[in-house]
Write a structure and sequence with these properties.
Strand order of the largest sheet of chain B: 2-1-3-4-11-10-9-6-7
Strand content of chain A: 25-35%
CATH architecture of chain A: 2-Layer Sandwich
Order of helices and strands of chain A: EHEHE
Helix content of chain A: 25-40%
Helix content of chain B: 10-25%
Number of helices of chain B: 6
Radius of gyration of chain A: 16 Å
Distance between the termini of chain B: 14 Å
Shape of chain B: globular
Structural class of chain B: alpha/beta
Largest sheet of chain B: 9 strands, mixed
Structural class of chain A: alpha+beta
Number of domains of chain A: 1
Number of strands of chain A: 3
CATH topology of chain A: Mth169, Chain: A
Largest interface: A-B, 11 and 20 residues
Number of helices of chain A: 2
Strand content of chain B: 15-25%
Oligomer: heterodimer
Distance between the termini of chain A: 9 Å
Largest sheet of chain A: 3 strands, antiparallel
Strand order of the largest sheet of chain A: 2-1-3
Shape of chain A: elongated
Number of strands of chain B: 11
Order of helices and strands of chain B: EHEEHEHEEEEHEEEHH
């Protein structure tokens, strides 16, 4: 058994209005960060799991995202894995 | 008739629903804790408002996996009437009983006020006591009431007249100014394809007596009672037991 650290990055779906991101964008602009073109605010979920292989860990993580961690109607997700055994 | 009111940790409109059912309507109601697995033969189910599981992850995302939800899903599949109010609406969307999702209000603020909604479809089991186009004054109190759905879903909802309530202004027009949370098409409430599952963000249970500032929400409960009273839901009752 190997141990993995999984990071799931969840962001509002492309094309969906992100009012929180918009508010942060406006605040940054008001601080003179005029180079800011777009801001999306999401969520980071970090897990430690046991799995036989990186592929097995990824498959389980995908399943977690589909069933609970992300809402497919409103959110996109990215999964990053690291073997920490 | 008996109404099951599902209570989750963090539900806070459960007693309002209970009072509306028992004191105002004079029907039986009972609380069912989310850890339970049976609806005990109830004729209708209410998922009340509040902040189940502290809105952790997403509003309604954790509550949707409570043990009682399996019984609620079965009851809904059998045609039993299920009413989700506010957080209850969010749970129904997370559970896939209703399409779409509810995201953060476009104002980023918690919106708590009396709004107007128009009855778009008065032929559902929840709205039969209203007339089409009737404008109701109902309270809202939510941070995540901004309804979103993909274009295909929206087209289907509109074509099948499943948008039951829409936010409107004093003239009964669905304007952007009258939209308290940014919901697409000013949507305040929708039903499933079978017409037996309704989710809405406004709180009808808070508007059942003049003393509360409005009695316009009462129609949802009286509609429910008159439809269930007809005994059409005997099958659903058996399935919930």
């Amino acid at each position: 058994m190997n141990e993995f650290q999984i990071e799931v990055r969840i962001t509002p779906r492309e094309g969906l209005l992100d009012p929180e991101g918009k508010a942060v964008e406006n605040a940054l602009r008001s601080l003179d960060f005029t180079e800011v073109m777009d801001v999306r605010v999401g969520r980071l979920i970090r897990l430690r799991v046991q799995a036989e292989s990186v592929d097995a860990a990824r498959e389980r993580a995908e399943s977690m995202c589909r069933q609970l961690l992300a809402n497919p109607v409103t959110e996109d997700y990215e999964i990053e894995l690291q073997n920490i055994s | 008739m008996r109404i099951a009111i599902i209570t989750f940790p963090g539900s806070n409109c459960d007693y309002d629903c209970y009072k509306a059912a028992t004191d105002v309507l004079g029907v039986e109601a009972e609380f069912i804790w989310h850890r339970e697995r049976s609806l005990r033969g109830a004729d209708a189910v209410i998922l009340p408002g509040g902040f189940s599981y502290g809105d952790y992850l997403r509003a309604g995302a954790i509550a949707r996996f409570s043990p009682i939800m399996e019984a609620v899903m079965r009851f809904a599949a059998e045609g039993g009437p299920v009413l989700g109010i506010c957080n209850g609406f969010q749970i129904l969307c997370e559970a896939g009983l209703l399409p779409g999702a509810l995201v953060r209000n476009r104002s980023l603020r918690f919106e708590s006020k009396l709004v107007r909604v128009r009855v778009e479809n008065a032929s559902t089991v929840f709205t039969s006591e209203y007339s089409e186009g009737q404008v109701l004054r109902l309270h809202i109190a939510h941070g995540h009431g901004n309804y979103v759905a993909d274009r295909e879903t929206l087209e289907r909802l509109e074509a099948e007249r499943r948008v039951v309530f829409r936010y409107v202004d004093a003239n009964g027009e669905a304007t952007d100014e009258a939209n308290p949370n940014g919901s697409v098409h000013n949507i305040a409430g929708i039903v499933n394809a079978g017409g037996n599952v309704l989710g809405l963000m406004p709180h009808p249970e808070r508007a059942v007596e003049a003393l509360l500032g409005s009695a316009d929400g009462l129609g949802i409960f009286t509609s429910l009672v008159s439809s269930v009273g007809g005994g059409r839901l005997a099958g659903a009752r058996a399935a919930g037991e």
